[in-house]
Amino acid sequence: MENVEVVVAHQARATVRVGDVFLKIDADQAHLDTEVAAIALSPIPAPEVLWQQPSVLALRAVPGTALGRLGEPSLASAPAWSAAGETVRALHQAPPPPWKARSLEDIAERLDEECRLLIGSGILPAALVTRNRQIAETALRPVAPVFIHGDLQPTHVFVEGERITGVIDWSEAGRGDPVFDLATLTLGHPERLGNVLAGYGGDVDAEAVRAAWSLRSLLAVRWLVEHGFDPAAPGAEIDVLRARM
User: Fold this and answer.
1) Rounded Cα–Cα distance for residues 118 and 237 (Å)
2) What residues contact 175, with CB distance under 8 A and at least 6 apart?
3) How far is the C-alpha of 212 from the C-alpha of 136, rounded, in Å?
4) Which of 2, 52, 82, 178 is 20 to 30 A off residue 90, Cα-Cα?
5) How far apart are CA 225 and CA 97, in angstroms?
């Protein structure tokens, strides 16, 4: 009998693996619906959807290993990171999904609220929050929205050698700024940004990507704390914010 591996579990959702099947249980059905719809539209390798029932989604595991993990050195090669950049470019060049993009105003309002709560709760020092909020401003610029993954952590990108075998966890996919995906992919791995941009090609504002490191980290820290994760772990979001000082 296959062992059951708990991949992630908190009060909002859980993911377990049994053999080569992942079961995703989510309290918000919209997340699962978005994932199924995004996978169907994706021009890049993604998991096979096996079945869906209320609150539960079954997906086939993709082969390979994760490109990297936040807080740990990546064992993937420079060409593998470049291949990831090329894969992201293919996604961004595809027709975007039909659902509405979040406005810059909404993102800025949420960022301001998160900064206020981070300071008010004492989770982060005011100087650290204020400086990174200033840096994040560069990432809040008007651009034509593209098809973005929305949560393109290196743990969600799988590779065999120098080939990308699949990208998982599409529940936040939609329309948005391409630098958000590039920033999420390289968050905590700044030394890989050049490899990713070399594979991505085109004229990318690297400073906007770096600014989005601050943006994503500020938006994530409180949620991570409240859901049992440790953003203060070595190399994680709080270290990313400190490095921007």
Assistant:
1) 13
2) 96, 97, 99, 100, 101, 145, 146, 147, 148
3) 6
4) 52
5) 31
- The neighbour count for residue 53, using CB atoms within 10 Å, is 8
Q: What angle do CA 151, 10, 120 make, to 5 degrees?
A: 80
Give ∠ CA 186-189-195 in degrees, rounded to 5: 65
Give the span between the Cα atoms of 20 and 150, in whole angstroms: 25
Phi and psi of 174, rounded to 5°? Answer: 170, -150
Specify the residue for token string 């909404």.
106
**What are residue 176's DSSP bridge partners?**
146
The residue whose two tokens read 């406005």 is 103
pTM of this structure: 0.95
Q: Mind giving me the DSSP string for 120-186?
A: HHTSS-HHHHHHHHHHHGGG------EEE-S---GGGEEEETTEEEEE---TT-EEE-HHHHHHHHH
